[in-house]
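User: Teach me something about this protein's shape.
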Amino acid sequence: MVERLIGRLATDEELRIEFTQAPEATLRTLREQGWALNHAEFDALIKTDIRLWSEIAERLDPRLQRCSLRGGARPDDDAN
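Assistant: First, the predicted structure itself:
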């Protein structure tokens, strides 16, 4: 399950934005939806440098990305 979640964080912009803004809440919601993450996986994902997910996404071919159709600011917008 953790491999699927890492793939989603790399390719799903909406989930990535959610996760970077509120990692623990996002993972709790995913658990409630049936994503079976054990304590070690949950903790490791929380402790992973949050910038990693955007960096991975930027390096992937755009055809592999699922873009968010929601408006609003993106996590990196504050830096520009």
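Now, about its shape. Residues 17 and 60 are 16 Å apart (CA to CA). The first helix runs from residue 2 to 11. If you'd like, I can walk through any region in more detail.
User: That's plenty for now, thanks!
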